[in-house]
Structure formats: C-alpha cells, structure tokens
Amino acid sequence: MMKRANDMSVTRRAALLGAAASGLVLGTGRGVAQTNEGLATPAVRSNISGFRVASWQDHFDNLRNGAILCDIDSRAVQFWSEDENVYKLYPSSVPLTEELTRRGYTEIVRKVDGPSWRPTPSMKERNPEWPDFVGPGPDNPLGTHALYLSWQYYRVHGTGDTRKIGRQSSNGCIGLYNEHIEELFGLAEVGTQVKLF
What we know:
- By secondary structure, this protein is an alpha/beta fold.
- 13% of the residues lie in helices and 27% in strands.
- The strands form 3 sheets. The protein has an 8-stranded mixed β-sheet, with helices on one face. The protein has a two-stranded antiparallel sheet with strand order 1-2. Strands 6-10 form a two-stranded parallel sheet.
- Belongs to the YkuD family.
C-alpha cells in the first residue's frame, strides 16, 4: 500500500528512478528486464559500444609513425604510439550502412585544425538541401579537428553532435567527440597507419 510521500522515506518517484537505474522497466504491474528481443531494429541504433580491445600485432606489421585501428563493429578507435608508451581507446560513430563503409588499410595524409566541410557529390545527391560549404565553427560536421585519410572523402574527425557517437550515423567517416579528436590529433602524425575493419 502506497502512503503519502511525506510519510515515507522512499517516494514513488524515487522508487521509479531506482527501478530505471537498476535496469528494470515497469510495465503492466510487473518488472521485466530490459531486452531487445522481439523489438524491431531501429534505423539508427543506440549509442552503445561494446569495445573490443585489440592487439596491434593482429592488424599491423609494425608501429612506424603509430597506428590507428577503427573497429566498425564495436564502434571504437584505438591508437598505439610508435614507442608503445601511449595507448588510447575512444568511442566512435561509424558509417550508417555497409555501402558507405570502406574497409582496409590507409594512412593519414593531412591534419587540419578547424576544418571546413563540403558534402561529397553522393551526399548532395542524397540530401540536395544540404549547404555546399560549411566553414570552421560549431556547425561544422567535421568538428574541431580532422585527420584526412589517403582515401578521397574519408576522414577521422570530430563532431559537435554527441548523439552520433556510438551509432551508425556517418556518411563514411569515423567520428569522435571533439575532445577525443583533439587528443588523437596531437598524438597522430602525417604517415600514421590506419586500418578500418
């Protein structure tokens, strides 16, 4: 029996918040564990990453100039410095579809602090309402920093839209929180090896 809130140390609101925090969803008078079974997969999945820590030796022959591993499935970016003294793991956004995803080996060919952005021809075809150019600043889809890859139109870059991190949400690039791309930008150099898999 529910007493008035001022008569109890635990209110209905506190009980509901506690149930939500513990992973229970209160439904028709009974608590059920959260699950994805039986639910349709949404077009954009939630921003949860199941990080897999990798060994650089499984992906690279050496660490010359450092190495960046972009794991599309676990939505994470890993970095190793050439001397192996620095290892970083960052959550990331990944391409929206397999058609937009490019996998394989590349390298950083250019680093830009405060990048400008132009949509690719295929982006403009899919989204004709998009602007032709966005200069550096808070509305720039590349965020505060961009690492340009040897593949045309592909980048590891920041984003001001933090909802994208951990999701399949990009048009082909790998996105990081702005504070993470700023850190990675300082660690990586032109010539750093990159693998997307």
